[in-house]
Amino acid sequence: ALTGGGFARLDVMNLDGTGRKHLYTAKFRGLFSTSWAHHGDRIAFAVVGVFQGPKGQVDLLTVRPDGSEVKKVAATANNGFPAFSPDGKRLVFRSGRDGAGKNLYVMNADGTKVKQLTKGKWTDTMCDWSPTGEWIAFASDRDRDGGFTVYLIRPDGSGLHKLIGGGGRNNHPHFSPDGRWGGCTSPRAGYSAAGTRPRAPPR
After folding, report:
1. pTM of structure
2. Cβ(57)–Cβ(40) under 8 Å?
């Protein structure tokens, strides 16, 4: 699953690039952050605006891989970066619904039973749920050093700890299929996925 059409379209394709099929078109440029449920029956994504404050309007939707049954599962706030739990029954996502910052929430895949995981006047975002279900990885600027740090937290809100930091934008964490490894974007090599000139890493 991927974005296309200048961040206005949701597509799916085979791993070799063939069989590309269009599923959904947004009214405005701003469709991002796709997550395909592990058992394959739904794809979650965010739509309507990027780089907004906590009170901005970004909706979360889900759709079947054939383009049917589009459902809005989160609205009325800046919601983004959904990630399915291993069993596909829940989603973790970022939201500014409390008005103070952007924090992490967990809900059922249909949008019910929303639970807040983190709380503060910072941005917790770009979350990924481990294949084992034990951890959620996310990026946060809570360290107030001008960059983003990767943290881990358990789905019940316990066990919060820093995984990697050191200044700069350490973003977009993702787990390996066995849950033992994690990858992220980082300015350590002199490049950044954020589209801005990265700060030099500390010596």
Report:
1. 0.88
2. no
